[in-house]
Amino acid sequence: MSRDDQIMANLENATELSVAFARYWLSLPSVDLIPSRRHFEPERIPGLLANLVIHELVSPEHLKLRLVGTAVVDDYGQEITGRNYLDFVDEARREKASRAIFLVCEQPAAMLVHLCSTAANGTVLTRESIAFPMRDDHGTAKLVYFCSNPAVERKTYVDARDALKVMNVLDRRYIDIGAGVPEFND
Which of 14, 59, 153, 172 lies at a CB distance of 3.0 to 4.6 Å from 18, suitable for a disulfide? Predict the structure, then answer.
C-alpha cells in the first residue's frame, strides 16, 4: 500500500471536507514530506477555502492565526484572523494545545482532531479539523494548514461570554505521513 493510500485509509470515518483537503495536500510537491506554501493554489480547492485555517508557529506561546476562512468566522461569530490561537484555549490547556500543533511540523505528521468549542453567541460547536504541515517562503516548516468543519452535532445554551473558547479535545489522532506518529497524550 502506498503512503498516500495509507493516509487515506486513516481517514475512512472523516468528513468529506477533511478527506478532500487531505487529497489536495497529498497532491502538492514536497521536500522531506512537507510541501511549500508557494505550491498551495487556493483556486484548486475553492469549496474548501471557507474552512481553511492557517496557524503560524511563532513560538510555543504564540500560534498566530494567519488566515481564518469565512465559514469558521461565521460559526464562531467573530473575526479571529491575526490573533493568537492560544488566546481561545483554556489557560490550563494552552501548553498542551501548543505542543500538539507544533508536533505536526516537528514530526512531521498529519492530525485529525475533534474539538468542542463555545462561540460568542453561546452555541456549542463540535468541529472536526484536519491539519497538515507546510513550509513558509524560506523553506521552514512552521505553518500548519487546517481544514476545519462543523460536525453534525450542535446545541445551544445561554452563556454571557463574548469570546470563542476551545473547551476540550474530544479526540485527537496523528496520522503518519512518512515519519511515524508523535507520542502525545491529551
Answer: 14
- Whether 84 maps to a domain, the answer reads yes
178 confidence band (pLDDT: 50, 70, 90): very high
Give per-residue pLDDT as tens, 55-88.
999 999 999 999 999 988 887 778 999 999 999 8
Number of domains present in the structure of the chain: 1
**CB within 8 Å of 66: residues ≥ 6 apart:** 54, 55, 56, 81, 82, 143
**Domain ranges, residue 108:** 3-176
The residues that bridge with 150 in the sheet, in sequence order, are 127
Whose cell is 487529497? That residue is 23
Query: Does residue 24 lie within any of the structural domains?
Result: yes
Full DSSP string of 65-122:
EEEE-HHHHHHHTS--TTSBGGGGB-GGGHHHHHHHHHHHHHTTEEEEEEEEEE-TTS
CATH number for position 93: 3.30.450.20
> Which secondary structure element, helix H or strand E, spans residue 58, and what is its range?
strand 52-59
Which conformational region is residue 93 in: left (phi greater than 0), alpha (psi within -120 to 50 degrees), or beta? alpha
User: DSSP assignment, residue 173?
Assistant: E
